[in-house]
Amino acid sequence: MSGTMGDSTRARIAGAIRSANAGGGIASGDRAHGTYLGGYAGGMGGTWSKAPTNRGVDPMRAGEGAGGAGAGAGAGAAGGPGRPTSASRMRPPASGAAGGAPQPGNPSGGMTGQSQGQRERIRPASQGAKNAWDELPRKELPKAPPHGVTTKQIKPVSATLAGGKTTKPLTGIGMDFKSPGLGQMEAVGGALGSAARGGPGGGGRIGSGGVGGLFGDPAGPPGRNSRQGVSYNTGPVPIGRAAFAEREMGAAEQQMTDLRMSGTGGADLSDASMAMLEDQIRDALRARRTVYEDSKSVLLKMFKSVDDGSGDVSWEEFCSISSQLGVECSVAEAQRLFERFGFKDRLPYTRFANILLTQPSRQLAEEMAIRHGPFKDVMAANFHGKIKDKRCRKPLYTPTNWDPQVDGARSAELPNKRLVLNFVYGYNGKDATSQNLFYNAAGQVVYFTAGLAVVYTRRSGPPGPPATEGADAEPSSATGSDGGGHSQHFFLGHTDDVKALALCPAEVDVNGKKYPPRTIAATAQVSSHEEGPYICVWDSRVGSQQGEPQLARLSFRKEDRGFSALGFSPDGVYLAAVANDNSHTVYVYDWRRNRQDGAAKGQMGDPPQVYGIEWNPYAGRHAAVPAAFLTFGKKHIKMWARGDTGQWAAKQLTTGRLDMQNVHSAAWLPPRQEGGSECMVVAGMADGQLYLFKGTAAVKAIQAHAKGPQAIQPDGHVAYTGLRGMRLVEMRDPTTGAPSGKRVLLTGGADSTILRWDVSDGSVAEGRFAGPPLSLRSTLPDRGHCIRSIDYDPARGVVLVGTNQCDILEVTESQQTVLVYGHCDDVWAVAFHPSLSHRAATVSEKVLTLWDLGARTMDRCSMVGFAARAVAFSTKPLEADGVTHHLAVGGAKGDLMVFLDSNLQPVHKTKDSREGITDLKYSPDCRLLAAATADTWIDIYSVSKGYTRLQRCSGHSSTVRGIDWSTDGSVLQSDSADLELLVWNARTGKQIPIPSRDVQFATYTLRLGFPVMGIWPDGSDGTDVNAVARSRGGDVVATCDDDGLVKLFNCPCVLDDAPHRAYRGHSSHVLGVRFNSDDTMLVSVGGYDWAMFQFNVVELVPVDHGPYLPQKVWGALDPEGRSFGWTYTPHNVQPGTAGGGGGGAPLPPLPAPPGGVPPTHTMAPALQVGVGEGSGAGSRAEAEIHEQVEEEIDPGDNGSF
């Protein structure tokens, strides 16, 4: 305050103090007895009008020395001798206390009468009268043992050492200093004798005036190893540096004598004892600090008083300073302490003070080197220190065992593993508007989901036994327990979402090769960032992993955005496509020649307005039937045919008296007369009715299906889906397989029913069916199947159905078989069983699903009753049978429910969050469950106590995105949406400020941290990556992002935009990725596409690099040794001969690296150059080496399936 107060203010306050002391303006009856001083003896450097802070003096030294509650008073109202500026603060004694002359060692007369360790109450300098503050009752402060008694002092479980280390729990420390009659630890050790209670050596009774040592005895503070008696003292003691200066000096001299005589004296020199000694020094300094001097300044001032100018102190000097602080330290302990700080007989006290009084995390930050962002290359990885990354608000630290030559080089290489797509769960029953499910000529099922075209092969052998219901059932093989089949292959030629599919009905010739009917497929994708939409025509019998199936590719403008429907002409020559621009342009292409045959506006409006295309299948088969096709959609249906000019033109079909609705499906009926040219059109409407059109007008409506539930349409409006599935089929004789001439119209609606209409006469009649209706059963009791697409296999008489639950089924009159299971909403999370590699669980909206990935099927599912967002398996069995694990599911509104994985029976439910649970993890020992929430906290539950909440870790400022447990279950790390990485003590729920650079985590699923700082692509803002999973072996790490990519990196991944293998297939926003228990499988789940991808993790065979290549070294470039630089063949120039004209032979090549095989991108030596070759030969050798190096570091394939 003295440094900021002006001269005029200082003079005014000084005058007020003098006036108050003189009694001017205040009645004598209102004045308290004693001398009134402002600050220290009237100086302006005191603390003014401050409440007590309990920081004045060490509270453990209470009750010692002369003076008590009624000890000798000060100079009195008449005035006493002036107090020196170095003396301690004064305040008037309590009313009724007798005044007295100054006592020895107390030049100011009376003592404060206040417990030592409590700052004196300072009266404002401008007021000299009593106030209510003076009348408040005094409360004694909690007492603790003095610094001298340390062998009996109870320390916390973990004592802090220098450098941020901690000791093990201090076991065996005595508790006999705990007095049952007192509420606090108030032990004082030392030879106090009879003088302890007011004898000649000092006391605590009223009126005692003896002079005592620092602890009431001239012998000084008691020793930590003292075997003498112990007394308890609760009375106040005098304070003030000047009052005890002489006694402290004498005590210090006596203490040094005792230390030299005793030697080690059996002192405990363990790390725990040294940590306790450091804590005592800190406590003593904390008691001596003021508002003007912090602990560090006090300590440096004391060291400088004994410094001879060298900046360091000896053992004896250190013991003397410790004695002045009231902390006993023997020479042996000082020597041990010096060694702990890295010194022998002299200790630089500035460094000692900095380490002792600076927090470990701050020490680490001050001493470490700093770099910004991930390493750019392997050479930059040779760094040990702090890393500031723009994608992480907290600094990252290299581990203490960080080896850039091994770990950094590994991060610069492609992983020695790759992912092979094995199976995809789900089907696009969500937003596809046209028919998207077909049988090909081989009886395989062709469909699409996300960004993939999928060809499914049914089980070819006899069905095996049903899957075992037990939790420990293992599949018999990788392909399940069936006799074969139940597999998929994929067309991977798309880079974004596929939205339309068509199958060519005719045999065609492509580049001289004939393709049978129903073998060629066409798929269309939406526009991507890099290019506009395009259509791929490919052979459905061959997958991209087995060969090259693509036959043609048609590219379009970005303005077309994508396609909602495709259709091949009956002869296979033309391909019609409806674009998603605002005009819904209808294109007709001769796809084999990549030539546009026509284009016209289909329907104006926000896409999609057109839902499908249907060609007339009888064109060409009947000479009188012209080529034509239908387009239909939102409240319209049009017929397209060639006009007189040869251009394709459309005619609007009208409904007349019937209500115009959304048209979801349509089909051409056979000609009503043999050789006739007229084919009637039947359309499926939104309310489930069939409209029959003759010519361009509707002639009647037939009630077929219920309209079903309302659903959100692809363009955003809510409407009934009604009759979506429709297929006209020609029946065959079951014995001969020849066409029977009977034609059946299959219709499937939102009421989970398939109707079979007899349309052999070219018309539809109400109630005229070819067979009984087929009903579908749903795995979810409260959700029925809304049929999205239908096809028929005439050879087997089986109906193929795709539903809104993204399941694919085969249905006959007697049975229903699910070929491919899917999810009916966004898939938010996936978790693997800790020991069964084939068992996984997913959550999608309100459904919990358990999967058997070995058999590639759904095991069981259950409704959870809330929107689920997170799922986790318990790390150990938790039921009495020893095999049943728990499944924890977290909800979007904070619900937490626990199920048995054997039958999905709920066993516990609670709700402690308001904003929702984002992640769940069981601790490795399965004692605790941590739940990350969007409320910015983490809840920790005790599993053994029935999921009782134990702790809440609060400290994040945004949604907590992920959590990971340490291997011992004591530490928890978490990251948040605002890019903050925090570490927690799981036992206390408190944040750990010390960097967790060497903590080993059982899993690593956070997006932030040193091991994964290289996963971010260029230009990312920290939100692109949605999930991270480290393999159980810790050698690779997988990520999924907003671009629909699943990436595989080496672990640790520390290089900026590190090399990786990327895999497409998902739609945007892949939400989860996890490895199974033995790292043989990886599963990723998509949000928008509702799909789950199952990958096999394949170990790659090491590449034979051929002859090892040498590395460049620094050496002489010429025989004379005048020129130096980087070269493969340095000349051997002896020291002292440089420039002397003597030649030298080239150095021999470097030895091969350990293991025999160099890293993929590392040049290893093996090419030898003959000794004695001239510079020309060396140059030629270097040229050859450069060529080999260029071939060696070719990155090759990076991301194919």
From TrEMBL:
Where composition is biased (Basic and acidic residues), the residues are: 132-142
Question: What region holds the EF-hand domain?
Answer: 294-328
User: Can you say where the WD repeats lie in this chain?
Assistant: 820-853, 953-994
What ranges does the record list as Gly residues composition bias?
36-46, 64-82, 199-215
The record's keywords, sorted A to Z, are:
Repeat, WD repeat
Q: Does the keyword Repeat apply?
A: yes
- Where along the chain is composition biased (Pro residues)? 1146-1157
Q: Which InterPro entries match?
A: Beta-prop_EML-like_2nd, EF-hand-dom_pair, EF_hand_dom, HELP, WD40/YVTN_repeat-like_dom_sf, WD40_repeat_dom_sf, WD40_rpt, WD_repeat_EMAP
Native species: Volvox reticuliferus
Task: Cite the record's Low complexity compositional bias ranges.
Answer: 92-103
> What PROSITE patterns does this protein's entry cite?
EF_HAND_2, WD_REPEATS_2, WD_REPEATS_REGION
Task: Indicate whether Transcription appears among the record's keywords.
Answer: no
In residue numbers, the region (Disordered) covers: 21-153, 199-233, 460-489, 1128-1201
Q: Show the GO MF annotations.
A: calcium ion binding; microtubule binding
Name of the featured protein: EF-hand domain-containing protein
